[in-house]
Design a protein that fits this description.
Length: 203
């Protein structure tokens, strides 16, 4: 997996909406990926990308189906900080990614469901070294203040659910601990792996 960014994430908001900047970054990602493949003696190359799609805009959050996920109810204590959402990677790909923010600003929290087993393997280290253990009906995971990772077996193979806190808030209850159980339960049902119940370690 190759990931690339331009500038400091918290200060580089405008370039995310600049077509020329985004096209250049897309070409750079493909060039780096092809270089990595050559270094590892992999066959083939990726073609240069075409024109990039428009950026995904923020929409008002539905607190009863947060991130467009039926059954994912956002607790009242987080409704003041997660007022908007955007789905930056939707259904049909290896992962579904949704972000939550306040007033269409920098993302405060990210919710990721990885349904491709090979991609899910990249989170193996988090499942062993990510923090206190999380247990579930059919899965397991780890939890800390900035990231919670949970895996379970589904019909298609291993699936990973992840909740990340991307910004400090005044609240003393991190999104990872508060939102992981509801997120996993709702997403497991959505993709046909439920029911699933996550039990958190004591604080």
């Amino acid at each position: 997996m190759v990931d690339a960014g331009s500038g400091h994430a918290s200060l580089d908001l405008d370039s995310a909406y600049d077509p020329a900047e985004r096209d250049a970054l897309a070409r750079a990602v493909v060039a780096v990926a092809n270089g990595v493949m050559r270094d590892f003696d992999c066959a083939g190359t990726y073609p240069a990308p075409g024109e990039t799609a428009d950026p995904v805009d923020w929409t008002d959050a539905d607190f009863q189906s947060f991130c467009g996920i039926k059954g994912f109810v956002l607790p009242a204590r987080h409704r003041g900080s997660l007022t908007t959402t955007r789905t930056v990677a939707g259904d049909g790909g290896p992962a579904r990614v949704c972000e939550g923010s306040h007033e269409r600003g920098r993302a405060y929290a990210r919710f990721t469901t990885v349904v491709d087993p090979l991609t899910a393997n990249t989170f193996t280290r988090d499942l062993f070294d990510g923090g206190p253990r999380v247990k579930g009906t059919k899965g397991r995971g780890t939890l800390n203040a900035t990231r919670a990772v949970y895996e379970m077996d589904c019909q298609s193979g291993r699936v990973v659910f992840m909740v990340e806190q991307l910004k400090d808030t005044e609240a003393s209850y991190p999104y990872t601990r508060d939102l992981l159980p509801a997120y996993v339960a709702a997403e497991a049902e959505r993709i046909g792996c439920g029911p699933e119940k996550v039990t958190l370690p004591r604080e």
